Amino acid sequence: MRVVLLGAPGAGKGTQGERLVKKYSFPHISTGEIFRAAIKEGTPLGKQAKEYMDKGALVPDSLVVGIVSERLQQPDCQEGFLLDGFPRTVGQAEALDEVLSGKGTPLNAVISVDADQGELLERLTGRRVCKTCGATYHIRFNQPQVRNVCDKCGGELYQRADDTVETVKQRLDVYCRQTEPLITYYQKKNLLFSVDGSKEIAAVFAEIISKLEGEKPA
Ligand code: ADP
Ligand code: ADP
Ligand code: ZN
């Protein structure tokens, strides 16, 4: 299954992605995670991406598209994949279509996780992430068993540099202007499934599964 998770920052893409890859055992490809790993390693890509990420802006398509295309050629992606946070612009979506149609393996579904702005702000400013494995928690809505320690790997939790109120507002604005048009883009292709992301994590997951496993796009 080839699936894209679409949604504003904080909608729950990463959280649902973690659960989906456990169920379907396909690779979880998060462009945000790829950039954060590159920053941690101090690579040239990381240095370039950091400039944009710190401001809450998007990394230019020219940098992102090549990385994802290469990732999709890897053997573990041939049976399917979950894209999280990519595409984020119409240009990226067109490039993805081209790569996949070249391989004769088009997308099966795009899941749009919807939530309102107030909820997103609260989620993002309370988000904590594992330094070691990238797992996502929330100080109120999804607490680890031991404060600041990852349940999965024992790693230390931290607050992302771009999860401050000011940068979050900028990112939500960028989402509305540059990413939201993808909803119509995928609706026209009859690939879009919308789910109510304001529900509890388990309820959102159940809705995604039911959409993926049978219902028609809506
Ligand atoms: P995204 O990848 O879309 O930016 P995340 O999955 O990182 O979003 O979720 C953002 C924050 O909100 C995290 O702290 C996460 O634990 C929390 N969260 C995710 N889904 C829900 C939900 N359905 N209800 C409450 N909090 C949630
Ligand atoms: P969130 O879901 O909370 O917005 P991500 O981890 O998906 O966070 O992305 C973090 C940052 O990485 C974005 O604000 C942006 O600067 C950059 N980024 C991630 N994916 C893309 C993409 N597909 N195109 C451009 N920039 C991206
Ligand atoms: Zn961890």
Helix content range: 40-55%
Biggest β-sheet strands, sense, barrel: 5 strands, parallel
Nearest-integer average pLDDT: 95
Number of helices: 9
Distance between the termini: 19 Å
* Beta-strand content bin: 15-25%
Structural description of this entry:
Helix content is 48%, strand content 15%. The protein is built from nine helices and eight strands. Helix 4 (61-72) runs parallel beside helix 5 (90-103). It is globular and about 45 Å long. The chain binds adenosine-5'-diphosphate (ADP) (2 copies) and zinc ion. One adenosine-5'-diphosphate binds at residues 7, 9-15, 123, 126-127, 136-138, 141-142, 200-201, 204.
Itemize the secondary structure elements and their pairings:
Elements: E1 2-7, H1 13-24, E2 28-30, H2 31-41, H3 44-55, H4 61-72, E3 81-84, H5 90-103, E4 109-114, H6 117-125, E5 127-130, E6 136-138, E7 157-158, H7 165-179, H8 181-188, E8 192-196, H9 201-212
Parallel strand pairs: 1-3, 1-4, 2-3, 4-8
Antiparallel strand pairs: 5-6, 5-7
Helix pairs in contact: 1-9, 2-3, 4-5, 6-7
Bound molecules: adenosine-5'-diphosphate (2 copies) and zinc ion.
The site of one adenosine-5'-diphosphate has 19 residues, from helix 2 and helix 3.
Give a brief outline of the structure.
With about 220 residues, this protein is of the alpha/beta class. The chain has one domain: Rossmann fold (3-Layer(aba) Sandwich). It has helices at about 15-25, 30-40, 45-55, 60-70, 90-105, 115-125, 165-180, 180-190, 200-210, and strands spanning about 1-5, 30, 80-85, 110-115, 125-130, 135-140, 155-160, 190-195.
